[in-house]
Every structure is written in C-alpha cells, then in structure tokens.
Amino acid sequence: MKTKIILLLLFLVSVSSFAQNMIVSGTVTGSEDNMPIPGVNVIVKGTSRGVSTDFDGNYSIQVSEGEILEFSSLGLKTKLITISNQTIINIALDTDIESLGEVVVVGYGTAKKRDLAGSIVRVEGDIVADKPNANPVASLQGRVAGLSVVNSGQPGQEPDIRIRGTVSRNQTKPLYVVDGIFSEDISYINPNDIDSIELLKDPSSLAIFGVRGANGVILVTTKKAKEGKLNITFSASTGFKNITGEPDMADANLFKTLYDERLDNDGSAPYGFYNLFNGNTNWVDEITNNGATVRNANLSIQSGNESNKMSVGLGYLEEEGIIKNEKLQKVTFNINDEVKISDNIKVGIGISGVKSDLPNLGNYVSSLNATPIVSPFNSEGIYNQLPIAIGGAQIGNPLLVVNERLPKNINNSYRFVGNIFAEFKFLKDFTFRTAYSGNYDNTKGRGYSPLTPVYVAESDEIANYSGQILSSVYQYNNIKQDFQQDYLLTYTKEFGDHGITALLGYTTFQEYFENINGSVKQLAGGDPIPNDPRFWYLNVFPFGDPDTRISNSEQWDRATTSGLFRVLYNYKRKYILNGSFRRDASSELPKETRGQNFWSLGAAWEVSKEKFMENSSINYLKIKGSYGELGNQYNAVHYPYLPNYQLGASAVLGNPQSVIPAYVLAYRNTDNLKWETITSYEAGIEMATFDNRLEFEATYYNKLTKDLLVFVSSGSDQFYTNAGEIENRGFEFTSSWNDNIGPDFKYSISGNLATIKNTVNSVFEPGFEVFSGPTRTRAGDPIGSFYGYIVDGLYQSNLDIAASPPSALGAYTPGDFKYRDVNGDGEITPDDRTVIGNPTPDFTYGISTNLSYKNFSLDIDVQGVYGNEIWRNWGNGSTFAQFNYRAVRENRWIGAGTSNWEPRLTEASGYNKLNSTYNIEDGSYVRIRNIQLAYNFKRMSIKSIDFTNMRLYINAQNLYTWKHNSGFTPEAGGSPIEFSIDNGGYPLPMVTSLGFSVSF
C-alpha cells in the first residue's frame, strides 16, 4: 500500500512538472490582411519571461497551464490568452486606431502625436543603423520634408543642416537633444544605438526650447531595454568607396595647346621648358584612394525585468577617405540603466562616450589646379616641383602634400556625455523628474612640418618644398564642457471627455570653452626636428628654438536659466489645444534685456471623429495650426555687448624713448542688445484613407526673423545692433501608400516635397548691403544671393563691339564677355551688377520604396533638389596665376562664330574675371541615394542558441547622380550668407557595403 501511494505521488508530480513546462508556439498575424507580424512582444504576464515574433510572425515560449500570455505591439490592440492544454496558439491582432498617432518624443517629455497640433516627424532608428555614415543625420537626406541635408564626402564631417530655410545671418544648425541632453552635434552617437529620431519644425513644438528653438530641433532617443526580454544583437559591415563625378580637365596635350595660345594672345614669349616637363598626369587619380574601406562592428545587449532595465551598446568604426592617408577611427559606447525602486519611484543613469582618431583631411583643389605636364617624381624618385611659371609659386605637388604632409598630424577627440535622473509619482496624477547632465569634449592634436626635398627642373637643383628652411611643430588643446539641470513637474489627468497634460519646469545650462595652441621652429643652424611623433611637442628639446615659440589662447563661458510651461489639452480626443511658454535669461546679454519670453499656441480638430464622417472612406482627418515666437541666441561673438580690446595706434614716450602700444575697443558698445526673435506660424492637414493604406500630410509654414543680431561696419563706426528681417515660407507635402499583393508580397511607397521662398525684408538701413565672397545680402533678395554681371555672350568682332553699349569696366576686345546693360542707361558700369543666382532651392524632395517578398526585401531611396544655383569657384579664370584648364576650354573663342560662351584665352586682362553668370551653374540634381537588398533568415536554433533574427544585406549609397554642374558634386554647404559655393574640394563617393546582423 505504501509503495502504491509513493508511485501515485511520483506520477502526480511528473504530470504537474510536465504541465508547468509545456512549449506553446504559433503565428501572429494582422486581423485585416492575415499577414504575419514580426516583432510582436509575447510575454508571460506578471513575469520577466518573454520573446518576440520573428520575421514570419512565429514565436515559441515555455509556459505553465493557467498562465496568461500577453501579445502586444505598437499600433495594435493588446490581446491576453490564458493557457490551458493547448500547445499551438495562432493570434490575429487588431489595429489600434487610437494608438496610430504613436507616442513621440517632444521637448521635456513624450506625447501621442494625435494630441499634438504641430509638425513632428519620427524616423525609426533602423533607418540610420545600417547605413555607412558616421553621423546619423547624414542618413536622413531626402527622408523628411523641410529638412535640408548637404552631406560632405570627407570622413567624419558634419553635414550642413537647415530646417525650413536659413533664418539668421549667424548660424543654421539646429539644436540636438539626446535623451534630454542639449548638444551642438550628435557625432558622438553610434547610429546603431539610436531608437528613434524626432524632428521638430513648427512653433507649437519649438517654443518650449526658447532661445535655441529658431533653427529647429532634432531629438534623439537611444535604445532602452524592454521588460521581460534579454536581447543580444551583433552587426557588422564592410564597404568600399569609389570616386564619382570627376571633373573633366585638360590633359597634357590640350594644356600645351591652350597655354601656348594664351601666351601668344598676351604677347608673351613661348614657354621654353617643355623639354623638362613631358608628363601627362591626372592629379585627381594620383591622390585618390579608390576602394577606400568603411568598416564597422556593433554589439548591443539589452536586459530588462520589472525592476531593472539595462542597455549596453559598443561600436567600432574605421573609415578611410577617398583621398590617400585619410582615416577616421571611432570607438563608441552607450549605457542606459533604469531602476524601479517602487511603483512610484524610479532612477536612471545614461552614459555615452567616444574616442576618435580624427582624419587628416585633404581636398582636391590643388589636384584640379596642377598642370598635367609634370610627373609626380623625377627619374631619381624625388618629388617634382610644379613649373615655376605654371602654378609652382601657388600650389605644391598634390601627391607630396597627401603623402608627406597629411600623415604628419595627430588629432584625437575624447567625449563623454552623461546624465542621472530620478522620477517620483505622487497624488496619482503628478510626476516630478529631476535630471543632471554633463558633457566633456576634449579635442587635441599636434603636427609636424618637415623639410621635404623637391626637384626644381628649371634650375636642375634640389630645394625644400615651399621654400621652407626650418622644420616646425604645432600643438593645440580644446576643452568644451556643459552642465545641464532640469526640474520638471508633470500633471496628467483624464476626466470625462477632457484630457490634460501640463508641464512646469525650471532648467539651467552652463557652457565653458578653452583653447590653448602654439608652435615652435627648429633651432637655426641645428638639426631638424626629428620625423618622429615622440618629438612633436612644443618643448622639443634640444631641437626647438625657444625664441620662436608662439602661443595663443581663447576661452569663454556662458549660462542660461529658464522657466517653462506647457499644456496639452483635448476634448473628446478630437478638439486639441496646445500652449507653451518659456522665459530665458542669458549671461551674454545686458541686464536690461537679459530675460526674453517665447511662447506658442496650437490647435487641431480631428474631423474624422465627427458623426458626419462615420460613413466616409476617410479613416483619419485632422486640421491643425500653430503660431508662436522662437528665439535664436547664436552670434559670431560671445557677449556682443562687451567688446574686447584690440591693438590700436602706438606712441613714442618716455626717456629713453620707447614705443607704447595703445588698445582700443574692437567695436562700439551697444547696451540694448537682445536675441533674435522668429515669429512663426503654420497650418495643415493630416489624412489617412483606403483603410489607412494611404496617408497624406500637407502644411504651409511661415517664419519671420526679426531684430537680427548683426555687426555693422559703416566707415569708422563699428557696432552690433538688432536690425533686419528674414522671411522663409513654403509648403510641405508627405504621402505614403502601404499595401500587399497576396500573402507573400508587400510594398510601400512614400514621398515628400518641400518648397521654400527665402526673402531678406531688411538688413540695417535702406540701401545697406552685406557682401561675402561672391554673394550679396540686401533687402528684397534671397539671403546670400550671387551677385555680378549677366553674360549675354561674347563679342564676335569689332563691329559687334561698336554696335553694343560701351563698357566702363576695362579694356576688352573680340572674344571677351558681352555684359548686359541691366539698368538700360546705355553703358556697362558697376551699376549693372545684379542678382545672378539663388543658392536656396525652389524645392527639395525624396521618394522611398520598399518591396518585400517572403524573406527578401528591397529598399530604394531617391532624393534631389531643384531650382538653386551653384557658384563655381574653381577652373574659372578668377586668378591671374596659371593653373590647369577645364576641358571645356577647348571650345574657347578663336575667331568670329567659334564660341559664344567660352572666352578667349588671356591672363593679361581682368575683364573676363569679374563675377558673372559665367561662374553660375545649375544646382538641381536627382540622386539614387540608397539601394539595399536584404535577406531575413527564419528563426533557428544552433547548439542551443535561439537566433531570433538573422539578416544579410548589400547596400549601395550615392549610386548615381544626375547633375548639371561641372564639379564633383552639386552639394555645397557654407555659412548662412555664403553657401552653395563649389570650391572643387571633395566628391561625395559611392559606397558599396555588405553587412549582417544577428540577434539571440
């Protein structure tokens, strides 16, 4: 009997054990289209156990009878299933219409997009994670309406970013906010660590940022762990760069033909050293590193339970430049840890860091200018100097510079950004959050200028490059530190048909910068400073000459304190009202004007929730608008109301007499300065129809910058003042279509287009103009307009000259430019200069297509701009130095009727070197920005390791560009008043990469 009881107990235990360890599997699909849904969270409710569905919507999880499985995903209604004795559970999830607005990050918090009246665009982190760009913003080109991204091909360089136009004469860069921390750039963030990027463009969302909101805000949220999951992801890719858009330059034979003709036209003797220079060098090819590599590897570990969520990211990037001896190396890390102490208290910490070996950046300017008749080396392997009469005095041997000068620089950057926070919930509806953040950025470097021998063919001798007689060393150290404090109280309440979220906050931001730099030359008569990094320091004993040591420094600090308030209110979830207020006080302004107020109001009406829309085919329709005032604290100098002193006149005083220098103010003091104010408004609609497959958004915006903080130089009087207005206005359109054909094929097409009209309403006083390079900024024109003469062709004969208005601009002959008489006074004078080009495009656009068939996916991104002009600042004869010719100069004027655009060859006259439409090129282009083909493997297990996701892809970036300009690329950034200028410096390379990612 006893034995039977024991056996019965063992049986019951075994049954119980089996019941507690059963495996449940199945597929999660959408209820509307029956398509599998990847990434659905499947969690055993009340525990930390959970998995995610794979690419095919499949899952498998260990459970016990009686436990509850929770199926959830953003945009879908959560479903709960109680486990009985079933082992296969297939689930169909319904679309959660109320959550389609998504939760987006806003200033100092989050909100449902449906509850907002402004224009906030969310970009998921996976869009930037697998692209070969060190800076995440570079991958947003063409993705967002109203966002202008001008990328640089140089490794590690920050793109030129403008949101809804150029609003100031001082800076265009938006404010970056990473996990609540203000930043001037996000180069320290590994793209693989980004969960989402939100772009804020309208006054309703920007006013909460006060004096830093005028240029727009880009919010970055890094990845955080999710409850109930341990996820490890590793990804890596290798890419290769190739040069694109290489300009057509004259070869040796064409150069000789053109140069001889130019000498003859100028009445000069023929060139007598062709016997010494018989090369045919393509200098662009000589310095190009085709096949330059881009390698990166990333590891992400995320683990979370009910009380602790931790995420760790590690990354490595190695990127070679398209020019030889350029290399960027970065090691990044990101740690986020959030601890739930109780139901009402949680604390957290976040730390990001990067260590960068910065590249020594070169450019292609000298390789375009250098004559092709010279070989890089002479017969003995010594670098050739360029011919003395053909650029030798102005430019060096391009290959020498790349091989011997670039590698002699060591530049490193160390940056650490961290924050800690505590969050307390009390009285049910209140949350208080306090956060402390810091940024430490240290960039330092040192370099060496060696004595490099070159062969001078004309004199048959060896000389030092660039006439240098002493080696030298330079050294610098930059430190930038920020400290931010946030104290935020949030009230959230739903009562009846009303919903309200109110925010009250106090924040401070302090910045400190210092720079120390110096140089020293070798001791005259002594040995050169060794070509060894161990000696590349200012105190380079015994090689350095202390008497030649020069040092300089720069430092500044500033602080801002701010109070802020925001309320988000809705009635029945269809009538929405948003309001924001912020007051900023800055140490950089006088006490009388130190505090400034900024505010906004926004309203929206979700029309689709009205009864009269119940039977409509429109699933979602919202009308929205906002108005407000934003601020811009950026300026060319710090503390503009407190001018520094500078060296003035000197006097001879004393006995014995000595020269005593005098110091004067750099400019006249102005006591009533304040920050620039941008008055902005927008109105638009958001719509979804055809069962939410078609989404469309349209917005009109207007931004008027008033009281520009400008520096005025009028005769001997120089001062800062608030004067001038700049207006930007336009339309933005975004649309997408998502559908499927059968169970295996899905596709989506999205596009955006943004127009912009930039106008300077006033500058300072009527008639006042600001010149910068080839641009002029004045009332009535776009900012930074190109300014010069309109070319109507070439004078073909003396009879043609006699029949045309006379020119007072200098001597001219047949074959020279025929400038237009713009003002119609019968004479060509400087008054005939006019606007000859607008650097701001009429519109920008982007199209993205995604196709997926079973496990394959194909993504294609196309972007472009239309309607802007480029100033060609190379190969245009703007200098009297003799450089190489563009190949089109083969079509120059050599007699009546031979050309009506390419002028005769001459350096004796400056008539054809005046700023004119000859320098203007069409900046419109269309680019295949990105193509990616990927294969997603099915979920599998290998040696007890459960691989939830495996992905292999090939990516091609900047595959092809249809353009009209003659330079490498139609893209060129710059300052607010001098941009879209092609200096011939650097191409935007095509990058082909192969990568993979695996999660388990």
Automatic annotation (TrEMBL):
Keywords: Cell outer membrane, Ion transport, Iron, Iron transport, Membrane, Receptor, Signal, TonB box, Transmembrane, Transmembrane beta strand, Transport
Keyword check for Cytoplasm: no
Recorded topology in the membrane: Multi-pass membrane protein
Main subcellular location: membrane
InterPro entries the UniProt entry points to: Beta-barrel_TonB (IPR000531), Beta-barrel_TonB_sf (IPR036942), CarboxyPept-like_regulatory (IPR008969), Plug_dom (IPR012910), Plug_dom_sf (IPR037066), TonB-dep_OMP_SusC/RagA (IPR023996), TonB-dep_OMP_SusC/RagA_CS (IPR023997), TonB-dep_rcpt-like (IPR039426)
Signal peptide limits: 1-19
Stretches assigned to the TonB-dependent receptor plug domain: 112-217
Domain TonB-dependent receptor-like beta-barrel: 420-959
UniProt-annotated location(s): Cell outer membrane
Matches recorded under Pfam families: CarbopepD_reg_2 (PF13715), Plug (PF07715), TonB_dep_Rec_b-barrel (PF00593)
Family, as annotated: Belongs to the TonB-dependent receptor family.
Record protein name field: TonB-dependent receptor
Lineage, opening ranks: Bacteria, Pseudomonadati, Bacteroidota, Flavobacteriia, Flavobacteriales
